[in-house]
């Protein structure tokens, strides 16, 4: 009978408003992530926001503001573990950091909503969205600027193995494709590869690299006549 005794229409309405706000704001954050085809998209960010709101709201009802504060602390650490699962390291490239940070932001939005701080939840959601949208052009512009060799943490090299007869055309296409992708070449190395082939290595200037863009360059190179293999790699500098 305790379950029936705990039913309070006013409290239920308050919980509904809090969770609905977390659902809407989490969905808005997740929609932006889904449009950009990120690992954690619409459903993940919405669930994180709703889950955080439910936990905080429940703690507030059971133990007042002190209980809510303690649960918020656990939400922060728990979302840290969830975000760690979205972070992947491949060679010198680390991906998923922004996804993990966005999940953290969604949890903060949900926690605010669960604590009945709807205005704060809205403000938090707006700033999470602004970080993922308004700052993107700024980041892309900065990343396209060459950085000093002393501060570079990785060296990116595009390698192509082709027949010796096709080497001049392949080299020209390689330089054109990299220039079109805004990855200027710092140095080109060529040496024999087997009895009839040549390996071309194009070292890029120290700029931030988008793996998907280099992968597209590789696909176009492999479609050229005389190309046996094309790939790129990153070497971390100690």
In short:
Belongs to the MgtC/SapB family. The chain is α+β, with helices and mostly antiparallel strands.
3D structure, described in words:
The chain has eight helices and six strands. A four-stranded antiparallel β-sheet has the order 4-5-3-6, with helices on one face. It is 60% helix and 18% strand. It is rod-shaped, with a radius of gyration of 25 Å. It has two domains: 133 residues, no CATH class; 88 residues, Alpha-Beta Plaits. About 3% of the residues have low confidence. With 238 residues, the protein is α+β, with helices and mostly antiparallel strands. It is found in: Cell inner membrane; Cell membrane. It is a multi-pass membrane protein. Virulence factor required for growth in low Mg(2+) medium and for intramacrophage survival. May be involved in regulating membrane potential by activating Na(+)/K(+)-ATPase. Keywords: Cell inner membrane, Cell membrane, Membrane, Transmembrane, Transmembrane helix. This is Protein MgtC.
